[in-house]
Design goal:
Number of helices: 3
Number of domains: 1
Largest sheet: 2 strands, parallel
Order of helices and strands: HEHEH
Radius of gyration: 13 Å
Strand order of the largest sheet: 1-2
CATH superfamily: Response regulator
CATH architecture: 3-Layer(aba) Sandwich
Shape: flat
Strand content: 5-15%
Helix content: 40-55%
Number of strands: 2
CATH class: Alpha Beta
CATH topology: Rossmann fold
Structural class: alpha+beta
Length: 70
C-alpha cells in the first residue's frame, strides 16, 4: 500500500513530472496531515465530501484555465 504523501514524494522526485499538479482528496482533516501533504508536494487538498464543481474549479485554477460555462 502507498499513501498520498508517498505518491506526492514519488511524483515530485521525478523531474519528468515537474509540470504535474496534485490534488489530494481525503476525509481526514487534521491540519498537520494536510500540511504534510503540502510539504510533500501536493498543490491542493479537498476534503470529502465535496461538490464536483469544487473539484473542477480547483483543476481549472491549477491548470490556469477558465472554466467553460454551460
Amino acid at each position: 500500500d502507498i499513501n498520498g504523501k508517498e505518491v506526492c514524494q514519488r511524483v515530485r522526485s521525478d523531474s519528468a513530472l515537474d509540470d504535474v499538479r496534485i490534488i489530494c482528496i481525503s476525509g481526514m482533516v487534521e491540519a498537520d496531515k494536510i500540511q504534510d501533504l503540502r510539504n510533500a508536494g501536493a498543490n491542493h487538498f479537498l476534503q470529502k465530501p465535496f461538490e464536483v464543481e469544487t473539484l473542477i474549479d480547483n483543476i481549472c485554477r491549477l491548470l490556469d484555465i477558465e472554466q467553460l460555462q454551460t
